[in-house]
Amino acid sequence: MAQARLRRVSEGIDKLPPRTREVFLLQRIDNLKYREIAERLEISQSAVEKHMARAMTFLGEWTKDW
After folding, report:
1. What is the pLDDT of residue 59?
2. pLDDT at residue 65 tops 90
3. Has residue 2 got a pLDDT over 90?
4. Is 36 exposed, middle or buried (0-12, 13-18, 19+ CB in 10 A)?
5. Which helix (H) or strand (E) element contains residue 12?
6. Which pTM value belongs to this model?
7. Rounded distance, CA 48 to CA 66, Å?
8. What end-to-end distance do the CA atoms of the chain give, in Å?
9. Quick one: how far is CA 22 from the chain centroid?
10. 3-state secondary structure 13-62
11. Could you tell me the CA-to-CA distances from 55 to 1, 14, 17, 28, 40 in Å, in that order?
């Protein structure tokens, strides 16, 4: 069951828009702070926050019934 849920999350990450996926992975996998992501991608910290909110909302819905 845990492997199926992990596979489901991975599929959801693949469905994120490219920039949202990049921000999400930099934060969750590389453990970068929002400020660091903003600097690296040359976007505002507010944009990073919006991408993370979008990713978390989508992934929450994507895995809701799992």
Report:
1. 96
2. no
3. no
4. middle
5. helix 2-15
6. 0.91
7. 27
8. 9
9. 7
10. HHHCCHHHHHHHHHHHCCCCCHHHHHHHHCCCHHHHHHHHHHHHHHHHHH
11. 23, 11, 9, 11, 19
